[in-house]
Amino acid sequence: MTPMKRSAWIALCVVVLLGLVAWLVLRPTSENVAMDFIALYDSAAEKRPEGDIFSVADVTLAGDTKRAILAKESTRIGWDITVPNNAWLHVSAGLQESAWTTSGDGVVFRVSINDDELLNVVVNPYRDQSHRRWQDFALDLSEFAGEDVRLFLKTNTSVPGRNNADGDLPVWGYPRLVTK
Can you give the pTM of this predicted structure? Predict the structure, then answer.
């Protein structure tokens, strides 16, 4: 084999190997969804306040559509679950697009397991344009593996010390437990 043919074969092998590595790294991976809280919406152990405060709908924020739980005011919704091993809560939070240009102080989104608060974040697309999209969160629940708990999604339509519900149209996008 001449040196030219050998270099061509080596180059071809390198290109094929790089293509294989790129495919392995960049290929889409599917989640192992253990619990879909949209599907479990009707079996929530707690919905406060009672009444027609919650609903489920497809919600689009900045062109990204997710199945979501809508809340009309300060709320909490909770499910009694047994946390699987290697579980993560994946959830998105946001305000409906019609609220983005309404003056207000934002919505506090909180996630807790029993009395342990795992997430406390204010979303205010009126004041912060980077909030004009889904805010995605992945919360590690491994410390609760095997435990029977109540998982809560909570919204407060005003930051502590204020009572301004202007433009507060909170949505929880596709909350789910994923195992890794």
Answer: 0.81
